[in-house]
Amino acid sequence: MGVDIDSCIERLYLGQILEEREVEQVCRALRLLLAEEANVVAISAPVTVIGDVHGQFYDLLEIFSIGGRCPDTNYLFLGDYVDRGHHSVETISLLACLKLRYPQRIHLLRGNHESRNITKTYGFYAECIHKYKGSAQTWHEFTEVFDYLALAVTIDDSIFCVHGGLSPSIQHVDQLRVVDRFEEIPHEGALADILWSDPDAEIRGFGRSQRGAGYTFGGDVVERFLHINGMSHILRAHQLCMEGYLVQFNDRLSTVWSAPNYCYRCGNVASLLKVDPYLQRDFITFEAAP
Amino acid sequence: MSDNSSHPGLGATTPWLQTQVKDLVENQQVIQVNSDATIEEACETLIKHNIQSVPLYDAKTQSYVGMFDLHDLATYILVKRSSNTDMDEISPADCSDLARNALTLGKKKFGARTTESDDVVVSRIADMSQINPFYSVLPETTLAQVVAVFAKGTHRVAVMDGTGKIQGILSQTRVIRHFFEHGDSDALDRPLKDLGLVTGDVVTVRPDTVVMHALSLLEHWRISSLAIVDEDRRIVGNLSVADVKYVARDRRLARATCIELVQTARFVQGLHDGRDRAAVFSVRPDASLRYALTKLIATGAHRVWVTEPRQSSTPTAPGAPPPDSTTGTPLAPRMRSGSISSASGPPPGTSMRRASVSSTSAQTVPIAPQHYGGSFNDCVCGVVSLTDILRLLAESLLPKANADPEYNYGSMD
Questions:
Q1: How far apart are CA A89 and CA A57, in angstroms?
Q2: From B299's CA, which of A94, A206, A243, B383 has a CA 20 to 30 Å away?
Q3: E strand segments, chain A
Q4: How far is it, in rounded angstroms, from Cα B57 to Cα B235?
Q5: What superkingdom does the record give (chain A) (predicted)?
């Protein structure tokens, strides 16, 4: 690989963005690496799970200072690295380099914002153009990488982790394994659902989502999914939680949210979730970095 | 406003239409604005409550003097721009007859005189666009009459009792939801295109079209929404008249591009409830009416775009230079590993779509086959709005040609 990855990481920790040429090389190498990953990656605890970050780079550094740096700590990120915050470029660049450098120590799932359509509207495209002097090349590179990100992770075959939620098309995890994920997130279908759906304590079964993509799903759907797949818990992100996290359905599903003071105005706290080797879950909350 | 349940033909087959409007607006918290509020104050109310229009109340006369909605604001902005700017500054591509027509309309009502200051009271521009005038109905009015009004394009009516007090605002969305929950129609399972619901004329703009030009299109064509498309007619976003309220907050947005206005609107909307929304709501022409309705009702949108797959696909040659930066088409053929992640199982979409969903709950939805929703690669070919659907319902209400000649259709108004 022609790029000095350690130098990239060092500069990124200081908040310096990479050169366009370096982004190209990192992304190209990362695509090769991710192409080897399955749609559903199996990992083991202990691992620290992180929810939406949304370009809040200084809060990402806060996460590393609370949770420990990678590779000292194993990390699982549930998606939504870009858009809305002002430092999406730094955020995704750092995470991409860390994945390249320590592929077994950090896992990155795809979120609904890891999409060409969404990033054109919610800020990442504009930020790339701005930070790279009118060139959209880095946006092209990163959005290509997004098509390769894994869809879900299982922790010790017991905890199912995904960005959004469940799909009426997927009862068994094996069905997710055979989806062709290497494309832009479609408007409909299993791939869209996994990244867009939300739990809803007030319904049973699946309902149409207000978001215009994915579904809402009730506690009965969660129970059935866990039962069929022999698992104990679902971890997901995708929805703002004022307290940083939310546990629902009799402790069968948790939402982790890791962007404090979302968009610099919501005033929420954020959390990171430590899963220990015995699969005990422990939420640590934190506020926005000064 | 006569109750037409006395007409046996209609009442017997369509009970949902006999619902009185007061039942649909029960317990509604009515938002209103004083008629002497400024335009900015009125827009802040719209943003805060996430609504598209608001009745204006005059405390002095203790009566309602009009409805302020975003079409009025759009017209006002066009008028103001024309009197503050030399018309030559606006390029022909920007403005032309369309904007001039809108301006003429606005100037008739508002007058050519405008002030630099933005302290214009909202009552002066209420109903300026004449698109959604203040329309009131009595609480006992049935849906049958309201559907006819909605079919003509009015988006909402005020339910007012005899004392002049507003009990609630009844919108097209609310009526459609009532129909979906209580009505019955063979039409529900038929494809949109067979029902004649897919209107081919879609007014589109490009992402870099200036907002002013988009506003003039909205007012000229008397529509509420534009599709933002790239040069291949793929929809990249949706500019609605609802997005105009953000222009009141930040006047510079009037000179921004459409995509910038949409970005601002989505940014603020997602903060509302912490849930971001899909960029585009679309369906294929062969989607059923039921499918389109569930999408409309769940999202609260006033229309869905109809898209179809592109006729010919032009694959990008390997090693070709990156395409134009605004299209976002893939750069190079996919690199894949030989075994794991490629589709070594059954092709996507066969076994999955037959998977069953719990049938015990009324909330479950049939799995939509993948082709019902539009794909991001589709071209826009039409639009289905609430008005179109209500027009269909209104037409199906009308008795057949050999109906009772003594029935007075005028009372439908």
A1: 9
A2: A243
A3: 40-43, 47-50, 75-77, 106-108, 152-155, 159-162, 198-199, 206-208, 215-217, 233-236, 245-248, 253-256, 270-275, 281-286
A4: 40
A5: Eukaryota
Residue type, A109: L
Q: Which amino acid is at A285?
A: T
State whether residue B353 sits within 8 Å of chain A by CB.
yes
* Tens digits of residue pLDDT in A201-225: 999 999 989 898 999 999 999 999 9
From CA A283, how far away is CA A288, in angstroms rounded? 16
d(CA A191, CA A109): 12
How far is Cα of residue B250 from the mean position of the Cα atoms in its chain? 23
Single-letter code of the amino acid located at B408: N
ipTM of model: 0.77
Q: Give the CA angle between residues B277, B283, B285 to the nearest 5°.
A: 170
pTM: 0.78
Beta bridge partner(s), residue B53: B69
CA nearest A147 in B: which residue? B334
Express each pLDDT in B243-302 by its tens digit: 888 888 788 888 899 988 988 888 877 777 777 888 778 888 888 888 899 889 988 888
Tell me the chain B residues in contact with residue A84 when contact means C-beta distances shorter than 8 Å. Answer: 267, 270
- Beta strands A206-208 and B53-58, pairing class: unpaired
The one-letter code for the residue type at A28 is: R
Q: Which of A41, A144, A188, A200 to mutate to test the interface with B (most CBs of B within 10 A)?
A: A188
Alpha-carbon A99 to chain mean position: 13
